[in-house]
Amino acid sequence: MGLADKIEFRKALFNLSEIDLENLSIDRHEEPKNDFEIAYCIFRDGVREQIKEFYGEWPEQIRRKFFLKGFQDPTMQMITIDNEVIGCFCITEQENSVILQRMYLKEEFQGEGIGLKLMNMALEKAHELEKPLELEVLTNNKRAIKVYSEHGFEIFNTLERQNRSYEMRHKDTEQYLTPIFNRASAKENDIKPSKAVKSKKDNTPKTP
């Protein structure tokens, strides 16, 4: 039995009153106090170097508040093995899509098939709801882009901002695109797709 077969999930539990936004720095040697602190440390360790390429540094206050906003998503799940939290993720249904987001694993548990299991769970949900499966990834996260591409995701849009990101969609769920969100149809009808795509997203922050 591999590690991916041993993982369990539970809803993220935390109390906003326990989170000290004034003391924004979390020392990696301190014991995290709650699910948010644990997940934030995993997130920070996972994307720190990519974010520093954009900002020149790790903007602790900005990233911590960004992650807290997303962590309040009611679909946030903690990933555990033998009661140890090893990661987190969300599979969120939006009006016109299913979004796999905030998927982070401790480094020592990467490459064990856990991420693939989560992608398959999201894909199953997308087929069930008959909606395209999408995710977002930093443009300089080459390792993640390679993994996603190998498992059926294709880049369909670039979000131009300080930390540039690609939006990727699973090719097996393109059949669920409505014509207005279908790039090919948009091109044939001289419709500019960018604004149409934006209109289907809510303001829930995805993986940075």
How would the blueprint of this fold be written?
Blueprint: E1 8-11, H1 35-55, H2 60-71, E2 77-81, E3 84-93, E4 98-105, H3 114-129, E5 133-138, H4 142-150, E6 153-159, E7 165-170, H5 183-188, H6 193-199
Parallel strand pairs: 4-5
Antiparallel strand pairs: 1-2, 2-3, 3-4, 5-7, 6-7
Characterization of the model:
This protein has 208 residues and is α+β, with helices and mostly antiparallel strands. It has one domain: Gcn5-related N-acetyltransferase (GNAT) (Aminopeptidase). 34% of the residues lie in helices and 22% in strands. The protein has six helices and seven strands. It has helices spanning 35-55, 60-71, 114-129, 142-150, 183-188, 193-199, and strands spanning 8-11, 77-81, 84-93, 98-105, 133-138, 153-159, 165-170. Strands 1-2-3-4-5-7-6 form a seven-stranded mixed sheet, with helices on both faces. A hairpin with a 2-residue loop joins β2 (77-81) and β3 (84-93). α1 packs across α2. The radius of gyration is 17 Å and the shape is globular. The two termini are 33 Å apart.
